[in-house]
Every structure is written in C-alpha cells, then in structure tokens.
Design goal:
Blueprint lengths: L22 H20 L8 H14 L5 E2 L2 E2 H13 L20 E2 L1 H5 L12 E6 L5 E6 L1
Antiparallel strand pairs: 1-2, 3-4, 4-5
Helix pairs in contact: 1-2
C-alpha cells in the first residue's frame, strides 16, 4: 500500500449566533444601543424624546453600525483598527552604517527621475531623487540627488 501525504487544511470556524451575525458583530450592535441609551439618559430632559437626542442617536448609529458589516470575510472594525494602528504608530528610520568604503558600492537600481536629470536642472528640482545599492555586509546605501 502506498502512503501519501495529505496537506493540512487551514480552516477557521466562526460561531454564528443568529443566521448571519457572529459574537463580535452582536457586541458592536449592543454597544451602539447602549451608547444611544446613555445619550437619552444624560442629555436633559432626562429619558424623554427630543429632536436633538434623536439626531445625535441617528448620527452615532450611522457611524457605529456599519463597523459590524463584513467585507471579504472580515469585520470592518478590524480594518479600521489596522489602519489607525498604522497611522498612529511611531515612525522610526534606522540607518545602518557599514565599514565598507563607498567605492565598492554598486548602485544598480536608479530611479527614473535621477536617470532623466541633467546637470543644468539640478538647481530647479524641488523633490529629491535617489538611487540605492547594497553593500557586501547587507547594508543599504542611499544616494540623494538634490
């Protein structure tokens, strides 16, 4: 009998509480209801219907409710958390110096802008052009052309 290797199947199972909502989606919708309830209890006159309270509740619901929808298998609040995490994380640029002399470098990839440059237009250029190369020890060297 021949033995064959069957690849592992990666499956993710979501528990559906209702027909199409899972627990995360229901929690987002319940948080929306709780915030609307807090608005009705805090803004005077207390626990009474007013036009201002209704407008604030509708605006809040229009912002929070779409975050519970799914797009390509993921809830939109997950996309929002990824985008905000990227935008607000600290940006750190690290320069790795190498002991290798600069004559040994080969700048093999040159940007289109630096290829089109001639010496007369160097002073008129507002954005930087660059080319980069790799050293023997893995260091990255960048040439900025003004």
């Amino acid at each position: 009998m021949r033995s064959t290797v069957i690849p592992a199947q990666i499956t993710s199972v979501e528990d559906k509480i209702t027909s199409f909502l899972n627990l995360k989606q229901i929690i987002i919708l319940v948080v929306n209801l709780i915030l609307v309830m807090i608005i009705f209890l805090i803004i005077p006159p207390l626990a009474k219907f007013t036009f201002l309270k209704m407008i604030i509740a509708i605006i809040l619901s229009l912002i929070i409710t779409p975050l519970s929808f799914k797009y390509k298998g993921h809830i939109l609040i997950e996309y929002l958390s990824l985008i905000l995490g990227y935008k607000f994380r600290p940006k750190t640029f690290v320069l790795i110096r190498d002991d290798q002399p600069i004559e040994d470098l080969s700048f093999n990839k040159i940007s289109e802008r630096s290829q089109k440059l001639n010496h007369t237009s160097l002073n008129n250029l507002k954005k930087l052009s660059f080319s980069y190369g790799y050293g023997k020890k893995g260091g990255v060297y960048v040439q900025f052309i003004k």
